[in-house]
Amino acid sequence: MENFLYPLAYGGLLLSAAVYFFLKEHKHAAGFAKTGFFASSFLYIVSLFFNKHGLPFDILGILAPDLAIFTIVTLIFNRLASGSKILYFTVLAIIVGLKLFLFDTSKEAIVNYVENDFTCSTESNEAQNIVGDKETATLPSNLDANGELLLDLNLKNKDAIVPVLEKYNIKMRRAFPNLQHDEYSELEEYYVLNIPTFQLKNIDVIVGELKNSGAIDYLENNEILELPQNPTTSFDVEANKPSFGINDPNLKDLWGFEKMGVAQMYATLKEQKPTKKAKIVILDTGVEADHEDISSNYLSLEKKSNYDKLGHGTHCAGIAAAVTNNGKGIASFSPNSEFVSVSSIKVLNDSGFGSQETVLAGIIKAADAGADVISLSLGGPSNDAHQKAYSEAVKYANKAGAIVVVAAGNSNKNAKNFSPANAQGVITVSAISPDLSIAPFSNHVQDMEMGIAAPGVKIFSTYPKGRYKFLNGTSMATPYVAGLLGVMKALNPELDTKTAYEILKSTGKKLEAGEKAGNFIQADKAISAVLEKE
Questions:
Q1: Among 24, 100, 134, 513, which residue's beta carbon has the most beta carbons within 10 A?
Q2: What is the tens place of the pLDDT at every residue in 36-64?
Q3: CATH architecture of 111-222
Q4: pTM, 2 dp
């Protein structure tokens, strides 16, 4: 009521004063102006009682500046009354406009709506006084301290969220402000809520009020992602025996090449020219762009993503797109540098942490950069029954022409409870051991929309500072699938996710683990199937 009564009353005061000075020579008309003045004064005083900031704020924050403005205005009106009518009422309109829209200090919070963006930016007295709670409050497990909640705003009823923001001093910002294609998904309606520390104890109540407000279509946690520890497992790996016709010295350490038919694939591709150079984008801890076995295939998208302190992203990049036949290190599915390039978007910090928001933004950025394949060797347990935001981001990427490949996870559990492995539209990858059993740590993919298997134990690949290293995990299996998909897309750029997956599945090797692992990718057969479809 205050938001309506206060401007009406103060506007009435200014208008009645203006009319009085303009008509003061006409006593009868001026009498009506006096009546309007006293009525407006009464409403003005009443409006102060609806302000929630208290008496000190009423006197110092509202009454004092209003009286000062009113005094100045009446002096101006008195001086201009005998002059031009147009000038007189123009000045009146300007003064009222400035007061109501620029100098209104009575509002409890300033809520801006600019290009579909809200920001609740004013802290209440409660926020300023509860110092103890700020010191003792703890962040709910697995939520990003810079924005705990991610929501899909109902734009038709967006104003209904404002009271909740004001009540708990919540800041709200648009989650993905730089979308190039709003029409691809609902991501333009997504916002992040940053809850003050002292209000975290009320997060369950806040979530309930948000859901009941009618202002949101969907709400989920903005979860923290952390790279898992490299799982340990013991397997003896025999050196590769076939002749691959290439000169990379560590080819002997890539046990998966023999079991995935890579020699036969190289032979098939020997006389083939790609239709395009497919772009594989690694979303991870960054990539060492100047590594000797990556640099010739590397395409920079942003400077900050061209280094890797932890090594996880660099290891994945080498698996997906190491330079083949350069006399250094390892090889990839791409027989030469004509088929694929590899790029990096750093979505995890130097400690291996990120959030759902940063990963989603990375998917969008990769899609907008023209990625053909997006590889995500990351994730974690999902606290939400459904991960709509991930699915919307994947939809966005798919419509931009990208295939999204995601690690199943390393917890020896069902991947349906892990994100983004459980997102709609992704190809989810399990890890296979050298004996072609499912790795003891690998999550299972039998309930995934599109589950597939690739080598994930004792995987030798590139590492920062020009090194190479063995690692284990579904993180390693995922870029194998991404690398193969990159070659497939280079041959047939029109391949969509569903078609590509059906090729991988139908040509893949069935394993003893069955659907828990998914079919094991066979590079030679997959490439032959793509060429047959051209």
A1: 513
A2: 777 877 777 776 665 544 444 455 556 66
A3: 2-Layer Sandwich (3.30)
A4: 0.74
